[in-house]
Amino acid sequence: MRSLENNSFRFFKDSYIRTIVITIVLSFISLSLIYIDSTKRIYSDTRANIRDIILVISSTVATPAILLEEGFSSLSEINNLYAELDEYKKQQALSSNIFQELSILRQKVEVYERDLNIIKDDNYASIAAEIFTDTSNRYFSSILIKAGSNDGLEEDNTIVSSKGLIGRISEVGNKVSRGLLLTDISSRVPISISNNEIQGILIGQNLKKPRVFYLKDMSELKVGDLVITSGKGGIFPSNIPIGTLASKNQKNKYIEIDLFERVDSLLRVRIINFKLKKNIK
Amino acid sequence: MENFFINNYFKEFFFHLTILFIISISAFLKINNYFDFLLIASLIIFARNKSLLFSYYPLALFTWGLYSDVLIGFPFGYSGVIFLFFLFLKEFATIFSDIENIKVRFYIYALGLIVLLLFEYLAISFFFNVSLSILNILTKYFLMLIIFYPISKIFMYIEIYNEK
Predict the structure, then answer these.
(1) Any idea what DSSP says for residue A265?
(2) What is the predicted ipTM?
(3) Nearest chain A Cα to B53, which residue?
(4) In chain B, which residues have their Cβ closer than 8 Å to the Cβ of A66?
(5) Total-model pTM
């Protein structure tokens, strides 16, 4: 009996140590994978291919939660409907005036461009695609979009909405792609601040308001200034609106930006093929 | 049928189904920025007593980690290292206490969260050159400490009920 107890104790002890050793080894493998993935991004294709299968499983498993959330959001939407209707009526009255002003401005710009012989670079191929889900979690902010390589999407294509820039495509699958949002900690966008054309880099902070660093001069900037893409680096087209200056931090030399678009209220986005200017189907 | 539900194999299946469910809803459900599903899955791993998979259990968690990374868009290995860290912490906690001693396990869990917080903060500062809001992270972790007791009690009940 005692021998049996000793044997079972040894087995437990061995199994216990074995589990610990395997855990430590796998932890080191995981840390190595993180390091390789964050420095070289070599798994992008593998990840995109596996994700299409995983999405089917996950959306099936999460169905009860999705239905519940949809129910709650429908209730809150009904609640907001009257307020939105009032707002819409006001906007409609304004928009006819704005449209006329825009048409005049557009004609003027066309005349100036023709006189100055400016090379036009703003006619990019684009498609509209539905947002599958917002996968923003912990320190990483991304969305899954129902469009992929079958629709002609490529890595680093620009994602915009009717209000402004949202981010860029970071992974392309056959039917679903991942869009990296401006709030993600790995997002870097070269920007320009209107009027003064002061340039900097917009860096996501995992907060609603990303920050702009590497500004040469902050003294001329003021709250409310328009922030747009500068087009430097060749990933994003120039002059896409991003947001407005929300606050200045003189001590740490950065400014915070109020983004024009909130992704959680969006259903569709537009994807611009700026980099290669190929025709998106 | 009653025996089936308290069967160890069912418990094992149910555990992995719960982990799959939590990972899946983290991609589709947004409650608020402070409700971290990855930490909830980790808490369940910590609160659980033992697995029928024995030495293959870390491998199963590593696989769930990869699943989560692909789905959410984390760097490969990120979720896995968090799951394995809490498994290691659980194994470490068994040296000092059994599953019924929640108080000791709570202190070890809180200590683990602090280590994770420091590690993540330093790693993000180093790799991405971004200073995160400590207040936001602390709120997330504090929320986990609040739900530690109810989740531990549920798992303790499941384990003891099964052994009786």
Answers:
(1) G
(2) 0.85
(3) A19
(4) 25, 28-29
(5) 0.80
